[in-house]
């Protein structure tokens, strides 16, 4: 995260402040996602990687929608590592929970909804329908792999 472009950092930080003030976004700091990364940190990393991919490929995207959707893509607001029947099949179910929570806390547009609902493709069967959602879908998998392998690789080296 420390190596992301300054304009990415500024835009993401601005959206984080809004999401923390107007909803429950800061609750993501209390639950772990992959490895030692919190859901909050993971969401910021996914936003930064999504922007970076779009930038490197020269893809025209709505940056505001991309950032907000990336920050809210895992807005399920529970620790899926806890032993609880409701967390069964988390990988398949959490996009709809995240969308429900995000809709309750924030006004969302079509792109943001698509990002949240479709980020787990192909685990969930319906693919994204916009460029921003595809970017978050790809960035999420990249970040999850990196976060999962980082503690393992640290022990090996």
Major beta-sheet overview:
none
Helical percent range? 55-70%
Distance between the termini: 22 Å
Radius of gyration: 15 Å
Q: How much strand?
A: under 5%
Task: Give, in order, the helices and strands.
Answer: HHHHHH
**Tally of strands:** 0
Q: Low-confidence parts lasting 5 or more residues at pLDDT below 50?
A: none
Count of discrete alpha- or pi-helical segments spanning 4 or more residues? 6
Average pLDDT level: 90
Structural class: mainly alpha
Form type: globular
Structure notes:
This protein is mostly helical and 157 residues long. It has helices spanning 6-22, 39-57, 63-72, 90-105, 110-118, 131-156. Helix 2 (39-57) packs antiparallel against helix 3 (63-72). It starts with 5 loop residues before the first helix and ends with a helix. The model has no long low-confidence stretch (mean pLDDT 90).
Summary of the model, kept short:
The protein is an all-alpha fold and about 160 residues long. It has helices at about 5-20, 40-55, 65-70, 90-105, 110-120, 130-155. Helix 3 packs parallel to helix 5.
Label this structure with key terms.
157 residues; mainly alpha
Show the helix and strand layout.
Layout: H1 6-22, H2 39-57, H3 63-72, H4 90-105, H5 110-118, H6 131-156
Helix pairs in contact: 1-2, 1-3, 2-3, 2-6, 3-5, 3-6, 4-5, 5-6
């Amino acid at each position: 995260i420390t190596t992301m472009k300054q304009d990415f950092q500024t835009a993401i930080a601005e959206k984080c402040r809004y999401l923390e003030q107007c909803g429950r976004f800061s609750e993501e700091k209390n639950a772990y996602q992959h490895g030692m990364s919190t859901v909050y940190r993971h969401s910021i990393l996914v936003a930064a990687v999504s922007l970076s991919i779009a930038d490197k490929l020269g893809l025209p995207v709505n940056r505001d929608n991309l950032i907000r959707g990336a920050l809210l893509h895992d807005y399920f607001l529970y620790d899926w590592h806890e032993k609880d029947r409701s967390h069964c099949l988390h990988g398949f179910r959490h996009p709809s929970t995240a969308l429900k929570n995000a809709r309750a806390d924030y006004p969302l547009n079509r792109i943001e909804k698509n990002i949240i609902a479709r980020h787990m493709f192909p685990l969930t069967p319906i693919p994204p329908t916009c460029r921003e959602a595809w970017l978050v879908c790809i960035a999420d998998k990249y970040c999850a792999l990196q976060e999962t392998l980082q503690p393992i690789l640290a022990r090996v080296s």
